[in-house]
Amino acid sequence: MHRPLAITDDQELLDDLLRIAAAAGVELDVAHAAAHARPYWSGAPLVLVGGDLADALAATGPPRRPDVLLVTRGSDDPSMWRRCVAVGARAVVELPQAERLLVDELGEAVEPVSRAGTVMCVSSGGGGAGATVLAASLALTASRRGLRTLLVDADPLGGGIDVVLGEEEATGARWPDIAGREGRVSFAALQDALPTFGELTVLSWHRGEPAAVPAQAMRAVLDAARRGCDLVVTDLPRHLGGAETEALSRAAATLVVVRSDVRGVLAAGQVLAQLRRHTADLRLVVRPGALAPEVVAASLGVPEVGVLPDQRGLAHALDRGAPPPLGRTPLGRLCSDLLDTLVEAS
């Protein structure tokens, strides 16, 4: 695979470019003279031309190509725009101000968007409503359909969503191992680090001391997953912090599981008031109870997209370490219907 090309003989600029490339998880080919760039020019996914060699490069008459950037170190030299045109660059990038932009450019060059992952959040309208089981079941159903799926456990007090899948002993990283990540991360690297089962990759919590997920880490994970996945399912806690609002802001839809009794509806109303501050598309999944699903939906002012009936054998399966029974079960049919409605029809 071809690597991005840096063309510069300015050692300070090169040091900056190598550092920025490392932050993007990218290796560079380097040409210290304009003439040395010719073998790499056409094949490189991105070319970074240092301002010091722009005139010399233009003098060699390189063929026009897309994805060339002229990079300087904070220069206000107006001749840089003339050099930008001369080498066929699409922009002048000034460091250090544009470091984050350059990290994204480099990452995108070597890992272009191969998918356009749909982010779906699942939240509980009250304690014990079954949101975590629904989130895990949605992700498992999607992966069995051949959709590349990331299941994200955003609740440090939930005991680990890997337990719901019966995979708590699976080898791979958990949140504490990657909570320090920020900036761009490739989905391939994320998938290699996390427990993965076929098309399903899982980011769960360990069973140690709980801690909040930094917002930057959630942003990095979700951005990587959107580039590399078909579906991202995030299981939210009832109390929202920075990481949870990052997920909600990216969600195409947020499912709220509600018990259909008076107390369940009142609790869900408070949860929905929080969620509405951060996301627009809210849907209800109703657990059967004293109130009809249409009454619950009308009371909360949120459309109902499914009913999650009690399922015989579900609790027993989870207690013995098996994943939720899906297929033709009520839970399996609900997940299939939700995917048809919210993901594959979009």
UniProtKB/TrEMBL annotation:
<feature type="domain" description="CobQ/CobB/MinD/ParA nucleotide binding">
    <location>
        <begin position="121"/>
        <end position="157"/>
    </location>
</feature>
<protein>
    <submittedName>
        <fullName>Septum site-determining protein Ssd</fullName>
    </submittedName>
</protein>
<dbReference type="InterPro" id="IPR002586">
    <property type="entry name" value="CobQ/CobB/MinD/ParA_Nub-bd_dom"/>
</dbReference>
<dbReference type="InterPro" id="IPR022521">
    <property type="entry name" value="Rv3660c"/>
</dbReference>
<dbReference type="InterPro" id="IPR027417">
    <property type="entry name" value="P-loop_NTPase"/>
</dbReference>
<dbReference type="Pfam" id="PF01656">
    <property type="entry name" value="CbiA"/>
</dbReference>
<dbReference type="InterPro" id="IPR059050">
    <property type="entry name" value="Rv3660c_N"/>
</dbReference>
<dbReference type="Pfam" id="PF26563">
    <property type="entry name" value="Rv3660c_N"/>
</dbReference>
<feature type="domain" description="Rv3660c-like CheY-like N-terminal">
    <location>
        <begin position="7"/>
        <end position="114"/>
    </location>
</feature>
<dbReference type="InterPro" id="IPR050625">
    <property type="entry name" value="ParA/MinD_ATPase"/>
</dbReference>
